[in-house]
């Protein structure tokens, strides 16, 4: 039996980690920390800090770091993501087989919350097919018994960048009695403003997707590194601040080697 906990840890502020997340961390036998390259070392540094500060008995819980496979940049985006998820699932399975051959509890620290533009749940669904029959007891190994590994997945919700963005700008997410749509920079570029939605939250933008929109009458609230000590906020009418945001984003990316940002667009007062 493998019990995998996908633990939302918020967006960079240790104060945003919930009591449920602390409990799940301390129940884990193994915690896996992904490394995403030297440029994004801040992300694994925060996870290390949380483990140091929140584990009651660090000697009981094994913390293992691993290099996250890189996604192929080919034109077939969905196909590349599908192959990437399969590669990550195989890495997860291999680590679990190595460090928990008899089963146990595994904790994965998920940036933000596993529900919002995060692939951890989809990757976890692939684990059963990736788990090898080598995860057997000594008695089973002695008689060459083959069995499937039982996997249970638990979700511990965390604070999202969207929540932090609205909190830091002191705004609601939606206009009064109106819906809000959450989308990606890629979709905003390809399809423009989604229907008659009054406000649009945009994530995973490689930079400046809002330039694809006619700026008149659109207000933007933008934030980068939300929850971290390097947090940066800007807001204003899109026609007035779009270029400022693009320039600030480029400067921050150059300074830190990476950037994670999000913004909310609205056509009606919030």
Structure write-up:
The protein has helices at residues 19-27, 41-54, 77-99, 120-125, 127-130, 138-142, 161-169, 185-191, 238-256; strands at 2-8, 30-35, 62-67, 104-110, 151-156, 180-184, 199-203, 219-224, 232-237, 261-266. With 270 residues, the chain is an alpha/beta fold. The chain has two domains: 2-159, Cobalt-precorrin-4 Transmethylase, domain 1 (3-Layer(aba) Sandwich); 162-266, Methyltransferase, Cobalt-precorrin-4 Transmethylase, Domain 2 (2-Layer Sandwich), CATH 3.30.950. A hairpin with a 7-residue loop joins strand 8 and strand 9. The longest helix is centred in the first third of the chain and has 23 residues, at 77-99. It is globular. The mean pLDDT is 90.
Task: Lay out the secondary structure.
Elements: E1 2-8, H1 19-27, E2 30-35, H2 41-54, E3 62-67, H3 77-99, E4 104-110, H4 120-125, H5 127-130, H6 138-142, E5 151-156, H7 161-169, E6 180-184, H8 185-191, E7 199-203, E8 219-224, E9 232-237, H9 238-256, E10 261-266
Parallel strand pairs: 1-4, 1-5, 2-3, 2-4, 6-7
Antiparallel strand pairs: 7-10, 8-9, 8-10
Poorly predicted residue ranges: none
Number of domain units: 2
CATH topology of the largest domain: Cobalt-precorrin-4 Transmethylase, domain 1
Distance between the termini: 48 Å
Query: What general outline do the C-alpha atoms trace?
Result: globular
**What is the ordering of alpha helices and beta strands?**
EHEHEHEHHHEHEHEEEHE
User: Biggest sheet, strands in spatial order?
Assistant: 3-2-4-1-5
Main beta sheet, described? 5 strands, parallel
Spell out the CATH superfamily of the largest domain: Tetrapyrrole methylase, N-terminal domain
What fraction of the residues are assigned to beta strands by DSSP?
Answer: 15-25%
Q: What is the average per-residue confidence, as pLDDT, rounded to a whole number?
A: 90
Spatial extent as radius of gyration: 21 Å
Q: Helical segment tally?
A: 9
In CATH terms, what is the architecture of the largest domain?
3-Layer(aba) Sandwich
**Would you count the extended β strands for me?**
10
